[in-house]
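Extended Data, panel c. Modelled sequence:
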Amino acid sequence: MNRVLTAACAAAVLATSSACSLTESNSTPAAKGAGTITVESSDKACDLSASQAPSGNVVFKVKNTGSKVTEFYLYAADGLRIVGEIENVGPGLSRDLVVHAAPGTYLATCKPGMTGQGIRSKFTVTGSGKTPAIEGVDQAGIDAATSQYAEYVRDQSQQLVAGTTKFTDAYKAGNDDEARTLFPRARIFWERIETVAESFGDLDPKMDLREADLEPGQKWTGWHRIEKDLWPPASGYRQLGTAERARFADDLLANTMVLHERVQSLDYTVDQIGNGSKGLLDEVAKGKITGEEDIWSHTDLHDFQGNVDGARVGFEGLKPLLEVKDPALAEQIATAFHKLQRLLDSYRRGDGFVSYDKVTEPQRKELSDAVNALAEPLSKMTGAITL
Protein backbone atom coordinates (compact mmCIF):
# COMPACT_ATOMS: atom_id res chain seq x y z
CA MET A 1 0.00 0.00 0.00
CA ASN A 2 1.25 3.50 -0.86
CA ARG A 3 1.39 5.83 2.09
CA VAL A 4 0.15 9.37 1.82
CA LEU A 5 2.41 12.38 2.32
CA THR A 6 2.07 13.81 5.81
CA ALA A 7 4.03 17.01 5.44
CA ALA A 8 0.87 18.62 6.73
CA CYS A 9 1.33 16.85 10.08
CA ALA A 10 2.84 19.81 11.87
CA ALA A 11 0.13 22.19 10.75
CA ALA A 12 -2.69 19.73 11.26
CA VAL A 13 -1.88 18.82 14.89
CA LEU A 14 -1.84 15.06 14.71
CA ALA A 15 -2.90 12.88 17.57
CA THR A 16 0.19 10.68 17.40
CA SER A 17 3.63 11.68 16.18
CA SER A 18 4.42 8.15 15.00
CA ALA A 19 1.97 8.61 12.13
CA CYS A 20 4.19 11.36 10.65
CA SER A 21 6.83 8.98 9.35
CA LEU A 22 5.53 9.12 5.78
CA THR A 23 7.70 10.68 3.10
CA GLU A 24 6.98 12.84 0.07
CA SER A 25 8.48 10.31 -2.33
CA ASN A 26 5.76 7.84 -1.35
CA SER A 27 2.92 10.26 -2.08
CA THR A 28 1.05 9.15 -5.16
CA PRO A 29 -2.17 10.02 -6.93
CA ALA A 30 -4.83 7.46 -7.53
CA ALA A 31 -4.64 5.59 -10.80
CA LYS A 32 -5.95 7.57 -13.72
CA GLY A 33 -9.73 7.68 -13.60
CA ALA A 34 -9.83 5.99 -10.20
CA GLY A 35 -12.08 7.34 -7.50
CA THR A 36 -11.56 4.65 -4.89
CA ILE A 37 -9.14 5.17 -1.99
CA THR A 38 -8.39 2.46 0.55
CA VAL A 39 -7.79 3.63 4.10
CA GLU A 40 -6.15 1.62 6.87
CA SER A 41 -6.78 3.14 10.29
CA SER A 42 -4.61 1.72 13.06
CA ASP A 43 -4.09 2.99 16.59
CA LYS A 44 -1.17 5.17 15.47
CA ALA A 45 -1.52 5.75 11.74
CA CYS A 46 -3.93 6.64 8.97
CA ASP A 47 -2.66 5.13 5.71
CA LEU A 48 -4.32 6.03 2.41
CA SER A 49 -3.60 4.27 -0.86
CA ALA A 50 -3.30 7.60 -2.68
CA SER A 51 -2.92 11.28 -1.90
CA GLN A 52 -5.31 12.51 -4.57
CA ALA A 53 -8.24 11.56 -6.77
CA PRO A 54 -10.19 13.14 -9.62
CA SER A 55 -13.25 15.20 -8.81
CA GLY A 56 -16.65 13.57 -8.74
CA ASN A 57 -17.62 10.56 -6.70
CA VAL A 58 -14.77 9.46 -4.42
CA VAL A 59 -15.09 6.26 -2.38
CA PHE A 60 -13.01 5.87 0.77
CA LYS A 61 -12.89 2.20 1.77
CA VAL A 62 -11.94 2.38 5.44
CA LYS A 63 -10.61 -0.63 7.35
CA ASN A 64 -9.83 -0.54 11.06
CA THR A 65 -6.59 -2.46 11.58
CA GLY A 66 -6.13 -1.22 15.15
CA SER A 67 -7.47 -2.19 18.55
CA LYS A 68 -9.69 0.88 19.11
CA VAL A 69 -12.98 1.91 17.56
CA THR A 70 -12.14 4.51 14.93
CA GLU A 71 -13.72 7.19 12.75
CA PHE A 72 -12.80 8.64 9.37
CA TYR A 73 -13.47 12.22 8.31
CA LEU A 74 -12.86 14.22 5.16
CA TYR A 75 -12.49 17.86 6.21
CA ALA A 76 -12.32 20.96 4.09
CA ALA A 77 -8.93 22.69 3.99
CA ASP A 78 -9.75 24.73 7.11
CA GLY A 79 -9.86 21.54 9.17
CA LEU A 80 -13.27 22.51 10.57
CA ARG A 81 -16.00 21.90 8.00
CA ILE A 82 -16.83 18.21 7.60
CA VAL A 83 -17.36 17.11 4.00
CA GLY A 84 -18.08 13.48 4.90
CA GLU A 85 -17.62 11.10 7.81
CA ILE A 86 -18.09 7.56 9.03
CA GLU A 87 -18.09 6.70 12.73
CA ASN A 88 -18.00 3.65 14.98
CA VAL A 89 -15.77 1.45 12.84
CA GLY A 90 -14.85 -1.36 15.20
CA PRO A 91 -11.53 -3.27 15.14
CA GLY A 92 -11.32 -5.53 12.11
CA LEU A 93 -14.34 -3.95 10.44
CA SER A 94 -14.58 -2.06 7.15
CA ARG A 95 -16.90 0.76 6.08
CA ASP A 96 -17.24 2.83 2.90
CA LEU A 97 -17.67 6.58 2.64
CA VAL A 98 -18.92 7.97 -0.69
CA VAL A 99 -18.54 11.70 -1.24
CA HIS A 100 -19.05 13.95 -4.26
CA ALA A 101 -15.87 16.01 -4.06
CA ALA A 102 -15.12 19.21 -5.96
CA PRO A 103 -11.53 20.10 -6.91
CA GLY A 104 -9.57 21.43 -3.96
CA THR A 105 -7.51 20.56 -0.90
CA TYR A 106 -8.91 18.49 1.95
CA LEU A 107 -7.73 16.83 5.15
CA ALA A 108 -8.22 13.06 5.42
CA THR A 109 -8.48 12.20 9.10
CA CYS A 110 -8.63 9.02 11.17
CA LYS A 111 -9.63 9.22 14.84
CA PRO A 112 -8.55 6.10 16.73
CA GLY A 113 -10.54 5.95 19.94
CA MET A 114 -12.90 8.58 18.48
CA THR A 115 -11.20 11.39 20.41
CA GLY A 116 -9.10 14.46 19.70
CA GLN A 117 -8.29 16.02 16.34
CA GLY A 118 -7.13 12.74 14.90
CA ILE A 119 -4.36 11.74 12.50
CA ARG A 120 -4.55 14.08 9.53
CA SER A 121 -2.97 14.24 6.09
CA LYS A 122 -3.44 16.40 3.04
CA PHE A 123 -5.71 15.01 0.32
CA THR A 124 -6.11 16.69 -3.08
CA VAL A 125 -9.03 16.43 -5.47
CA THR A 126 -8.05 17.37 -9.00
CA GLY A 127 -10.33 18.58 -11.78
CA SER A 128 -11.60 15.66 -13.83
CA GLY A 129 -13.12 17.81 -16.54
CA LYS A 130 -16.37 15.90 -16.15
CA THR A 131 -19.68 16.62 -14.50
CA PRO A 132 -20.77 13.17 -13.34
CA ALA A 133 -24.47 12.47 -13.42
CA ILE A 134 -26.44 9.87 -11.55
CA GLU A 135 -27.32 7.32 -14.19
CA GLY A 136 -30.98 6.43 -14.53
CA VAL A 137 -32.23 9.32 -12.38
CA ASP A 138 -33.55 12.57 -13.83
CA GLN A 139 -32.16 15.87 -12.59
CA ALA A 140 -35.61 17.08 -11.54
CA GLY A 141 -35.80 14.27 -8.99
CA ILE A 142 -32.37 15.15 -7.63
CA ASP A 143 -33.27 18.83 -7.40
CA ALA A 144 -36.50 18.03 -5.57
CA ALA A 145 -34.70 15.85 -3.00
CA THR A 146 -31.93 18.36 -2.29
CA SER A 147 -34.18 21.44 -2.15
CA GLN A 148 -36.66 19.72 0.15
CA TYR A 149 -33.88 18.74 2.52
CA ALA A 150 -32.51 22.29 2.57
CA GLU A 151 -35.96 23.57 3.51
CA TYR A 152 -36.22 20.94 6.23
CA VAL A 153 -32.89 21.98 7.78
CA ARG A 154 -33.86 25.66 7.74
CA ASP A 155 -37.21 24.87 9.36
CA GLN A 156 -35.64 22.76 12.12
CA SER A 157 -33.03 25.45 12.72
CA GLN A 158 -35.74 28.07 13.12
CA GLN A 159 -37.58 25.88 15.60
CA LEU A 160 -34.30 25.26 17.44
CA VAL A 161 -33.87 29.00 17.91
CA ALA A 162 -37.41 29.36 19.24
CA GLY A 163 -37.10 26.37 21.57
CA THR A 164 -33.68 27.40 22.85
CA THR A 165 -34.94 30.92 23.54
CA LYS A 166 -37.76 29.61 25.73
CA PHE A 167 -35.44 27.18 27.47
CA THR A 168 -32.72 29.72 28.23
CA ASP A 169 -35.28 32.31 29.38
CA ALA A 170 -36.67 29.84 31.93
CA TYR A 171 -33.20 28.80 33.05
CA LYS A 172 -32.00 32.38 33.56
CA ALA A 173 -35.17 33.24 35.48
CA GLY A 174 -34.57 30.36 37.90
CA ASN A 175 -37.67 28.47 36.74
CA ASP A 176 -35.89 25.15 36.97
CA ASP A 177 -38.92 22.87 36.65
CA GLU A 178 -39.95 24.62 33.45
CA ALA A 179 -36.38 24.57 32.15
CA ARG A 180 -36.12 20.82 32.82
CA THR A 181 -39.31 20.26 30.83
CA LEU A 182 -38.10 22.44 27.94
CA PHE A 183 -34.58 20.97 27.79
CA PRO A 184 -35.38 17.82 25.74
CA ARG A 185 -38.13 19.55 23.76
CA ALA A 186 -35.69 22.16 22.47
CA ARG A 187 -32.83 19.73 21.95
CA ILE A 188 -34.83 17.48 19.61
CA PHE A 189 -34.52 20.12 16.88
CA TRP A 190 -30.74 20.07 17.32
CA GLU A 191 -30.69 16.28 17.15
CA ARG A 192 -32.69 16.22 13.90
CA ILE A 193 -30.01 18.25 12.13
CA GLU A 194 -27.04 17.22 14.26
CA THR A 195 -24.82 16.11 11.39
CA VAL A 196 -25.37 19.44 9.64
CA ALA A 197 -24.52 21.29 12.85
CA GLU A 198 -21.43 19.11 13.32
CA SER A 199 -20.20 20.06 9.85
CA PHE A 200 -19.35 23.43 11.39
CA GLY A 201 -16.45 22.20 13.46
CA ASP A 202 -16.22 25.37 15.53
CA LEU A 203 -19.82 25.29 16.74
CA ASP A 204 -20.37 21.71 17.83
CA PRO A 205 -17.79 21.73 20.67
CA LYS A 206 -19.24 24.99 21.98
CA MET A 207 -22.82 23.72 21.92
CA ASP A 208 -22.93 19.97 22.49
CA LEU A 209 -19.73 18.83 24.17
CA ARG A 210 -20.12 16.31 26.98
CA GLU A 211 -18.13 16.66 30.17
CA ALA A 212 -16.51 13.26 29.62
CA ASP A 213 -15.09 14.46 26.28
CA LEU A 214 -13.41 17.58 27.62
CA GLU A 215 -9.72 17.87 26.81
CA PRO A 216 -7.23 19.44 29.23
CA GLY A 217 -7.74 23.17 29.39
CA GLN A 218 -10.86 23.12 27.23
CA LYS A 219 -13.72 25.42 28.23
CA TRP A 220 -17.03 23.63 28.79
CA THR A 221 -20.13 25.41 27.49
CA GLY A 222 -23.40 24.51 25.83
CA TRP A 223 -26.34 22.21 26.42
CA HIS A 224 -24.65 19.70 28.69
CA ARG A 225 -23.03 22.33 30.91
CA ILE A 226 -26.50 23.69 31.66
CA GLU A 227 -27.91 20.17 31.91
CA LYS A 228 -25.57 19.36 34.78
CA ASP A 229 -26.66 22.51 36.61
CA LEU A 230 -30.35 21.61 36.25
CA TRP A 231 -29.82 17.99 37.32
CA PRO A 232 -26.89 18.40 39.74
CA PRO A 233 -25.05 15.44 41.24
CA ALA A 234 -26.12 14.51 44.76
CA SER A 235 -22.88 15.81 46.28
CA GLY A 236 -19.74 17.70 45.40
CA TYR A 237 -21.33 20.16 43.01
CA ARG A 238 -21.99 23.90 43.42
CA GLN A 239 -24.90 25.13 41.35
CA LEU A 240 -24.31 28.21 39.23
CA GLY A 241 -25.35 31.65 40.38
CA THR A 242 -27.61 34.04 38.47
CA ALA A 243 -24.78 35.77 36.59
CA GLU A 244 -23.13 32.47 35.65
CA ARG A 245 -26.43 31.06 34.45
CA ALA A 246 -26.98 34.09 32.26
CA ARG A 247 -23.50 33.78 30.77
CA PHE A 248 -23.88 30.12 29.77
CA ALA A 249 -27.46 30.58 28.57
CA ASP A 250 -26.64 33.62 26.46
CA ASP A 251 -23.64 31.84 24.97
CA LEU A 252 -25.78 28.83 23.96
CA LEU A 253 -28.42 31.04 22.38
CA ALA A 254 -25.82 33.15 20.55
CA ASN A 255 -24.23 30.05 19.03
CA THR A 256 -27.67 28.75 18.08
CA MET A 257 -28.29 31.98 16.21
CA VAL A 258 -24.96 31.61 14.40
CA LEU A 259 -25.95 28.09 13.35
CA HIS A 260 -29.31 29.33 12.12
CA GLU A 261 -27.66 32.06 10.07
CA ARG A 262 -25.17 29.67 8.49
CA VAL A 263 -27.69 27.05 7.34
CA GLN A 264 -29.74 29.64 5.43
CA SER A 265 -27.33 29.59 2.49
CA LEU A 266 -26.44 25.90 2.51
CA ASP A 267 -27.09 23.65 -0.46
CA TYR A 268 -26.89 19.85 -0.25
CA THR A 269 -25.89 17.04 -2.55
CA VAL A 270 -27.31 13.53 -2.65
CA ASP A 271 -24.22 12.07 -0.98
CA GLN A 272 -24.35 14.65 1.82
CA ILE A 273 -27.96 13.80 2.58
CA GLY A 274 -27.36 10.05 2.43
CA ASN A 275 -24.19 10.18 4.53
CA GLY A 276 -25.89 12.54 6.96
CA SER A 277 -28.77 10.12 7.49
CA LYS A 278 -26.35 7.33 8.30
CA GLY A 279 -24.36 9.71 10.48
CA LEU A 280 -27.41 10.42 12.60
CA LEU A 281 -27.78 6.71 13.35
CA ASP A 282 -24.09 6.63 14.26
CA GLU A 283 -24.86 9.36 16.79
CA VAL A 284 -27.48 7.09 18.35
CA ALA A 285 -25.05 4.19 18.57
CA LYS A 286 -22.22 6.34 19.91
CA GLY A 287 -23.97 8.12 22.76
CA LYS A 288 -27.69 7.59 23.07
CA ILE A 289 -27.75 3.81 23.38
CA THR A 290 -25.10 3.85 26.10
CA GLY A 291 -26.79 6.62 28.10
CA GLU A 292 -23.68 8.81 27.89
CA GLU A 293 -25.34 11.65 25.97
CA ASP A 294 -27.67 13.01 28.65
CA ILE A 295 -25.97 11.52 31.67
CA TRP A 296 -27.50 14.00 34.14
CA SER A 297 -31.07 14.34 32.83
CA HIS A 298 -31.52 10.83 31.36
CA THR A 299 -33.50 12.36 28.47
CA ASP A 300 -31.56 10.27 25.95
CA LEU A 301 -34.65 8.81 24.27
CA HIS A 302 -35.78 12.29 23.21
CA ASP A 303 -32.41 12.77 21.51
CA PHE A 304 -32.64 9.24 20.11
CA GLN A 305 -35.97 10.14 18.52
CA GLY A 306 -34.55 13.36 17.07
CA ASN A 307 -31.69 11.52 15.38
CA VAL A 308 -34.08 8.92 13.97
CA ASP A 309 -36.43 11.67 12.72
CA GLY A 310 -33.60 13.39 10.87
CA ALA A 311 -32.30 10.16 9.37
CA ARG A 312 -35.79 9.21 8.21
CA VAL A 313 -36.42 12.59 6.56
CA GLY A 314 -33.14 12.29 4.66
CA PHE A 315 -34.03 8.78 3.52
CA GLU A 316 -37.56 9.66 2.51
CA GLY A 317 -36.30 12.54 0.37
CA LEU A 318 -33.90 10.21 -1.45
CA LYS A 319 -36.28 7.26 -1.56
CA PRO A 320 -37.68 8.06 -5.04
CA LEU A 321 -34.11 8.03 -6.39
CA LEU A 322 -33.25 4.82 -4.56
CA GLU A 323 -36.40 3.11 -5.81
CA VAL A 324 -35.14 3.69 -9.35
CA LYS A 325 -31.66 2.32 -8.64
CA ASP A 326 -32.35 -0.37 -6.01
CA PRO A 327 -36.02 -0.84 -5.05
CA ALA A 328 -35.28 -3.85 -2.82
CA LEU A 329 -32.85 -1.79 -0.73
CA ALA A 330 -35.39 1.02 -0.48
CA GLU A 331 -37.98 -1.41 0.88
CA GLN A 332 -35.49 -2.96 3.31
CA ILE A 333 -34.59 0.46 4.75
CA ALA A 334 -38.23 1.53 5.03
CA THR A 335 -39.10 -1.66 6.88
CA ALA A 336 -36.17 -1.24 9.29
CA PHE A 337 -37.20 2.35 10.03
CA HIS A 338 -40.73 1.17 10.81
CA LYS A 339 -39.50 -1.53 13.21
CA LEU A 340 -37.17 0.86 15.02
CA GLN A 341 -39.87 3.50 15.40
CA ARG A 342 -42.35 0.96 16.71
CA LEU A 343 -39.82 -0.07 19.36
CA LEU A 344 -39.11 3.55 20.31
CA ASP A 345 -42.82 4.26 20.62
CA SER A 346 -43.09 1.56 23.28
CA TYR A 347 -41.09 3.86 25.59
CA ARG A 348 -43.33 6.90 25.12
CA ARG A 349 -44.99 8.42 28.14
CA GLY A 350 -47.45 11.16 27.21
CA ASP A 351 -45.65 13.66 24.98
CA GLY A 352 -42.23 12.44 26.10
CA PHE A 353 -40.31 9.28 26.93
CA VAL A 354 -39.44 7.20 29.96
CA SER A 355 -36.30 8.30 31.79
CA TYR A 356 -33.40 6.40 30.25
CA ASP A 357 -32.06 5.22 33.60
CA LYS A 358 -35.23 3.11 33.81
CA VAL A 359 -34.37 1.29 30.58
CA THR A 360 -32.73 -2.05 31.45
CA GLU A 361 -29.62 -3.46 29.81
CA PRO A 362 -31.61 -6.10 27.87
CA GLN A 363 -33.92 -3.35 26.61
CA ARG A 364 -30.95 -1.23 25.57
CA LYS A 365 -29.57 -4.24 23.72
CA GLU A 366 -32.87 -4.59 21.89
CA LEU A 367 -32.73 -0.92 20.89
CA SER A 368 -29.13 -1.31 19.77
CA ASP A 369 -30.01 -4.33 17.63
CA ALA A 370 -32.80 -2.36 15.94
CA VAL A 371 -30.44 0.53 15.22
CA ASN A 372 -27.85 -1.83 13.75
CA ALA A 373 -30.50 -3.56 11.63
CA LEU A 374 -31.29 -0.18 10.09
CA ALA A 375 -27.73 1.14 9.90
CA GLU A 376 -26.48 -1.75 7.77
CA PRO A 377 -28.79 -1.23 4.76
CA LEU A 378 -28.84 2.56 5.24
CA SER A 379 -25.04 2.63 4.87
CA LYS A 380 -25.49 1.27 1.33
CA MET A 381 -27.93 3.96 0.19
CA THR A 382 -25.49 6.64 -0.95
CA GLY A 383 -23.43 4.24 -3.02
CA ALA A 384 -26.51 2.57 -4.48
CA ILE A 385 -27.79 5.91 -5.76
CA THR A 386 -24.62 7.65 -6.88
CA LEU A 387 -22.28 4.93 -8.16
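Residues 57 and 100 are 4 Å apart (CA to CA). This feature is highlighted in the accompanying rendering.
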